[in-house]
């Protein structure tokens, strides 16, 4: 098996580092976004059901008033139907409210995690900057040593 040079290992490590950084950045963007979408959708569904419930409650009040005034069996039956529909909508609203609460909890827990991801991305970015700085310094030192080696024979000749 051929021996890998330090430069090959360095390139490989750099590629892995960039891959990890991209994954963290992408997950940070998608994580909170997905929870926000879920929360918004649930809130919208809850509002629609609540609106329907309010409309049904209004109809129940109207039908109750009509049944009270007329006293007919037909009006009483319509009142029963309206009350049953309002009851079902009330249950649906309670269920939607529970789902919305769950989505809201997920969203609130997603925010600190998103902050962690942002901190990790920043740490990776800082590390990358520091790494680049060290690489530039190492290259400069290498050039300086090469210059000194070139000048060393000339200085020996001058000393003699």
Describe the structure.
The structure is a single chain. The chain is mainly α and 160 residues long. 95% of the residues lie in helices and 0% in strands. It has one domain: Helix Hairpins (Orthogonal Bundle). The protein has helices at residues 6-70, 73-159. The mean pLDDT is 78.
Task: Offer a quick outline of the entry.
The chain is mostly helical and 160 residues long.
Keywords for this structure?
160 residues; single chain; Helix Hairpins; 0% strand; mainly alpha
Count of structural domains: 1
Helical fraction: over 70%
**CATH level-two architecture:** Orthogonal Bundle
Order of helices and strands: HH
The coarse overall form would be rod-shaped
Structure summary, number of beta strands = 0
Which CATH class?
A: Mainly Alpha
Strand content range? under 5%
By CATH, the topology is Helix Hairpins
Task: Measure the end-to-end span.
Answer: 50 Å
């Amino acid at each position: 098996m051929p021996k890998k040079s330090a430069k090959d290992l360095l390139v490989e490590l750099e590629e892995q580092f960039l891959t990890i950084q991209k994954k963290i950045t992408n997950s940070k963007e998608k994580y909170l976004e997905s929870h926000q979408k879920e929360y918004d959708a649930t809130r919208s569904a809850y509002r629609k059901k609540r609106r329907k419930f309010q409309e049904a409650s209004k109809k129940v009040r109207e039908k109750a008033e009509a049944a009270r005034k007329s006293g007919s069996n037909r009006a009483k039956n319509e009142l029963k139907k309206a009350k049953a529909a309002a009851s079902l909508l009330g249950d649906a609203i309670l269920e939607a409210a529970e789902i919305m609460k769950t989505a809201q909890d997920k969203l609130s827990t997603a925010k600190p995690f998103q902050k962690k991801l942002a901190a990790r991305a920043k740490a990776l970015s800082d590390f990358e900057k520091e790494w680049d700085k060290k690489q530039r310094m190492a290259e400069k030192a290498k050039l300086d040593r090469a210059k000194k080696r070139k000048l060393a024979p000339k200085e020996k000749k001058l000393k003699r």
